[in-house]
Amino acid sequence: MNKYVERLYNGIIKENPTFVLMLGMCPTLAVTSSAVNGVGMGLSTTVVLVMSNLLISMFRKIIPNGVRVPAFIVVVASLVTVVEFIMKAYTPSLSESLGVYIPLIVVNCIILGRAESYASKNPVMPSVFDGLGMGLGFTVGLTIIGLIRQILGATLGITVFIMAPGAFLVLAFLVAGMNVVRDKMEKKGKPLAAPSGCLTGDCRSCSQSAMCTGKLPESAKKS
């Protein structure tokens, strides 16, 4: 498989941030009351992912190891500010609907995780496609959840699905479905990635665990 296509497949299917890795749960549960909100949030995150991976990969050899996380945050925060201004200018209603969750893209563990685990260690083009794949996977996840909630809640009148509990219910059923797919893929010898988000409590395999616990990794201590 072409390495660029492989990065797209990885983000959309094999390591889908929403249904497989279970990352970015805050916006996933908070803004997916409609399909439009899901698409808007997903594409905004995709733009930041692609551009941050691009810049971090370009400067990976000159960013000192000891300050790489602060450097990543500065890059991501700058890009999020640009995206926020563009959305306010051209899609004000969507920007208002998504509210504070656009600025909070800065601390989205999908973006910082890809910067740390992939972009900072790989060339520019694979990093760009990695960001694109992860972003599209996130967009697909949010759109599906938003579409289901919109149909069940707004169209069919089951109001619980446009409320906060509805987000948990829809996500739970979709993750259960993904677990069925996971079992089938494992039987075929093509396993999906193991869940590694905050909801799993698997801090050892999370690239952002140092930020959560306040403990620096050994590499940072040595530098």
Quick tags:
223 residues; mainly alpha; globular
Molecular structure report:
- By secondary structure, the protein is an all-alpha fold.
- It has one domain (3-222).
- The chain has helices at 3-14, 25-30, 35-58, 68-90, 92-98, 109-117, 124-155, 164-187, 209-213, 218-222.
- The longest helix is centred in the middle third of the chain and has 32 residues, at 124-155.
- It is globular.
Number of strands: 0
Q: Give the averaged pLDDT, no decimals.
A: 86
- Sheet of most strands: none
Strand percent estimate = under 5%
Summing up helix and strand content along with how strands pair, one would put the structural category as mainly alpha
* Shape category: globular
Radius of gyration, CA atoms, in whole angstroms: 18 Å
Q: Which regions contain 5 or more consecutive residues with pLDDT less than 50?
A: 213-223
Please work out how many helical segments DSSP would assign: 10
Listing every helix as H and every strand as E from the N terminus to the C terminus, the arrangement reads: HHHHHHHHHH
Distance between the termini: 38 Å
Number of domains: 1
